[in-house]
Amino acid sequence: MTATPPAENLKEVESVAATAGDRFDEVFKHAVAARGFMPDEEGQALFLHARRCGADGPDGPWLEVGSYCGKSACYLGAAAEHDGRQLFALDHHRGSEENQPGWEYHESDLVDPAIGRIDTLPEFRRTIHAAGLEGTVVALVGDSVSVAAVWRTPLSLLFIDGGHGPEPAHGDYEGWVPHLAVGGLLLIHDVFPNPVDGGRPPFEIWSRAVNSGVFRQVDAVGSLRILRRTGEGI
Ligand SMILES: C[S@@+](CC[C@H](N)C(=O)[O-])C[C@H]1O[C@@H](n2cnc3c(N)ncnc32)[C@H](O)[C@@H]1O
């Protein structure tokens, strides 16, 4: 496995960003300020690999599963905007298990008082609007597996950061990976090889990709894994 030292990635992010002037700086500021679960260093790696995919990846839109309040969508959206791609940001906006009341990552101000359930869509829309990415990032509101079942367009980039339980994580993998074109990038978040660091399902789907024989890992930054599709299949 290749794991780029964070400082190397950071240097490259800075030099890529410098060539595009103030626009990346502006979007990055919104990404850092956005609520969510993407450490800066991993967000920068997301951006960097998306930029590479925009330059030499296959044709087609990009899709992320799990947008929450729009943090990762800003990093991916900055790259998508630069390369004239479209990013579909898919989330039912009701939060994952760990976002529900009584769980570790619950944020009570994100509960819609009218229905007593989490609704991250308004905050997501504020984030994307503030970052000036409304022309690039298209919100898809619904259940991941249901949308995947009717999706028909080959993807150039797929970022999986949805539900982290066994059923949603494997559902995301089985539903969306078949839509990723050969040569495209698969990015998986919250992959923890050591169970004491975090839950197993993202690690399990990463293992499926690595053992499938149709993905090659190109980088690893924190809990983010970046793989390129080298053949058909899952
Ligand atoms: C870890 S958060 C995403 C964090 C986000 N990428 C960021 O940068 O902050 C996971 C998200 O997946 C969404 N989610 C969980 N299960 C889902 C499902 N079956 N379909 C659609 N979205 C789902 C949740 O609503 C939640 O917003």
Number of discrete domains? 1
Strand count, sense and barrel status of the largest sheet are: 7 strands, mixed
CA-atom Rg in angstroms? 17 Å
Structural class: alpha/beta
Name the CATH superfamily classification: Vaccinia Virus protein VP39
How much of the polypeptide forms β-strand, as a percent range? 15-25%
Bound molecules: S-adenosylmethionine
Q: Mean of the pLDDT scores?
A: 94
Shape: globular
| E-strand count | 9
Helix content: 40-55%
What is the CATH architecture descriptor? 3-Layer(aba) Sandwich
Low-confidence stretches: none
Question: Would you kindly provide a written description of the structure presented here, covering whatever features stand out?
Answer:
The structure is a single chain. The chain is an alpha/beta fold. It has one domain (6-229): Rossmann fold. The protein has helices at residues 6-20, 22-33, 40-56, 71-82, 121-130, 144-150, 166-176, 201-211; strands at residues 62-65, 87-91, 111-112, 117-118, 137-141, 155-160, 180-188, 215-221, 224-229. Strands 5-2-1-6-7-9-8 form a seven-stranded mixed beta sheet, with helices on both faces. A two-stranded antiparallel ribbon has the order 3-4. A hairpin with a 2-residue loop joins strand 8 and strand 9. The longest helix has 17 residues, at 40-56. The radius of gyration is 17 Å and the shape is globular. The two termini are 19 Å apart. The model has no long low-confidence stretch (mean pLDDT 94). Bound molecules: S-adenosylmethionine. The site of S-adenosylmethionine (SAM) has 22 residues, from helix 4 and strand 2.
